[in-house]
Write a structure and sequence with these properties.
two-stranded antiparallel sheet
């Protein structure tokens, strides 16, 4: 049983983890790509000129609070009048620099959509995490099974010991009492009335 369990632990991570990782990577990549395409459809990029130096602040998002630098920018669209707004710009932007800023359909400045490299990186990371999680689950199940088997064996050993302990104790007592009686029998002295023979050689008279 233990040999089969060890074989399963060695084979399952190699056999099951790669397919699980591939499926998870494809799912994550497709989900992230769909979100990126949706962002690109809702957001539009503008090539604008920085008017003043950027100032830093903290912005709350789904990923947590982080520093965001904004500055007044201006641009002129095709067939439009000059427009201006406060938008996110690089921290090292200077007045007169031309940068790309993003706005949503309501005219609010938003971060750039997720690029393809980030989407692929997200998919690969999710796939690797799923494969590692699969291998960890296999190892955890194997370890739990070994603990259960060890406890069961110890319980069986204790029950077998409880059944055989009284019999073994009686045998030890019988063996000890027999050896003690034989020792006393060998140590009994021979009396002069029960011995005869040559001097120095006692002979027991039976009867």
């Amino acid at each position: 049983m233990e040999a089969w369990s060890a074989l399963a632990v060695a084979v399952l991570p190699c056999v099951a983890a790669p397919p699980v990782g591939v499926v998870a990577a494809r799912w994550a990549y497709g989900d992230a790509r769909a979100a990126a395409l949706e962002q690109r459809a809702e957001h539009h990029r503008v090539r604008a000129e920085v008017v003043e130096r950027p100032t830093g602040g903290r912005s709350s998002s789904d990923a947590g609070a982080r520093h965001v630098f904004r500055a007044p920018v201006r641009w002129t669209g095709p067939g439009e009048k000059p427009r201006s707004a406060v938008a996110r710009v690089p921290v090292n932007a200077r007045p007169g620099d031309v940068v790309h800023v993003w706005f949503d359909s309501r005219g609010r400045d938003v971060p750039p959509p997720v690029d393809d490299a980030s989407v692929r990186q997200y998919g690969v990371g999710m796939g690797a995490g799923a494969a590692g999680g699969m291998a960890a689950v296999v190892l955890l199940v194997h370890r739990t099974a070994r603990r259960v088997t060890t406890r069961r064996r110890l319980a069986e050993w204790e029950r077998a010991r409880a059944r055989t302990e009284p019999e073994r104790t009686r045998r030890e007592v019988w063996a000890g009492s027999g050896a003690h009686d034989g020792h006393e029998h060998r140590q009994q002295p021979l009396s002069a009335a029960s011995t005869c023979g040559f001097p120095g050689t006692p002979w027991r008279i039976s009867g």
